[in-house]
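Case study 2.
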Amino acid sequence: MNYQEALEYLNELNKFGTKLGLDRIKRLVELLDEPQLKYKTVHVTGTNGKGSVCAMVSEILHQSGIRTGLYISPHLVSYTERIQIDGVAISEEEFASCIGAVKTFADQMVDEGMESPTQFEVLTATAFLYFAFKNVEYAVIEVGVGGLLDSTNVIVPEVSVITNVAFEHADLCGGTLEGIAHHKAGIIKDGVPVVTDAKGTPLEILQQEAVEKNTDLFIEDTDFEAKFVSCDGKRQVLLFSSEIVGVSLEFSLSLLGDHQIRNCALALMTIYLLSSDEKRINFEATKAALANVKWPGRFERFDTAGKMIIIDGAHNPAGMLVLRQNLDKYFHDNQRIFLLGMLRDKAIDVMRNTLLRPDDIVIATEPDSKRMAEPASWAGKLNVKYVEIEPNRKMALDRAMRLTSGESLLCITGSLYLIGEIREMLRHIRNGEAEILNDN
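Prediction:
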C-alpha cells in the first residue's frame, strides 16, 4: 500500500462515521498483539486544551532524553501530523505501511463477522503499532471523543489528564453536561492518578469516579496552580506552584493566552507525577521544552508579509470565549480583521456573539468541509463595522490581508478545517513561494 492508497482506504472508512464503543478496537489491537501495552502512556481528554497539554507533556519528555510518541487529532494539513515521535511526524511511506498492516487485520475482523473498524479506530491502531515498532518509551495519547468509549481507551496510562468539561459532542456523550462528564471520567483507571481543571458538577462526577477507582485526583487551583508573571508578546512567564509536590518555579512559555497558562499547569503537574518514577525528567529539560514548545493553530502568532496574524482553531463556544479573552488581553486596542468560517453543526450564533466586537471587520468564507455553514446564512446577522462574503478561501485570504495594515490584527478562526489550509497558504507566502500581498 502506498500513501495515496492509504488515504483512499481512510476515506472509504468515513462511511462508517463516528461510532463509540470498544469492541472493535479491542479485537483489532488483540490481532496486532496489543502494541499499546508495550510502552508507558499518558492519556489526555477534555473539551478544550487537551492538544496543548499533549504537546507540552510530550515535548518535556522528549527534552528529557526519553523517546516519546504523540498521537493527536484532528490534523491541520496531513494525516501524518497525528502520529509523531520526538516531534517528527511519521513519514508518508511508514504511514502507508502501518495502515496496510492494520487493514489486513481489519479485513480479518469483517471476515469473522464483526463490524468494520471506523476510520478513527484504524488511525488509533496505526499509531499504537507504529510506536511499538519504533520502540518508544512513552506515548502521549489524546482522546478523540469523550473518553469512556473512545478507541484510545484501551491503554493503561501512568497518568490520566482531564482538562475541562464543557458542552460539546453531547449527541455522542449522553446529551447533558453530566453525561459528557461521565464519558470524560471513563478514562480514569484503578490506581492511576488523575490531573484535572474541571469545575462544578463535572468535577464532582470526577471526584466520585476517582473514589470508586481508588485513585488520587489532583485539582487545578486546589492542589496546584500557575500564575501569569509577564509577557513580551511572544513568550509569557508563569509561576507554577504546588504544596503537594513542594515546588514553586518560574517557567517561560512559548504559547500565548491565559488558557495556555492553565494548560501548562496541567502539563507540569502531570510531569511532576511522572518524575516520581522517571528520574530522567529534570528542571532544565522542562524549562527548555516549555520555552520552545509549538502547537500550530492554537492562538498561534504567525506574522507574515508584514502583517500581524493570529491563527486559532476555536470552533465551539468555550473556545471562542477563550479566544475573545486573549484578543482583548493582548490586542485590545488593535483594529481586528477576522477571516471567519464555521461549520453548520456548531453553535454559530453563540460563537459569533461571543467573539466579535462592534468595530470588527469580518471576511466570511467556506471551510473545506461538507459540514461547512454557508457564509450567507450567518454573515448577515453580524453586528460589526463591515462584513464581506468571499466563498473562495484563497481570495478571502487575499482580501483579509489587504485590509490588514499598520497596527491592525488579522485573526483566522472558526474551524480547524479552515485554519489548516489558510496556515499552509501563509506558510508559502512566508517562504516566498507565493505572491506577497500589498496593502493597497
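The mean pLDDT is 94.
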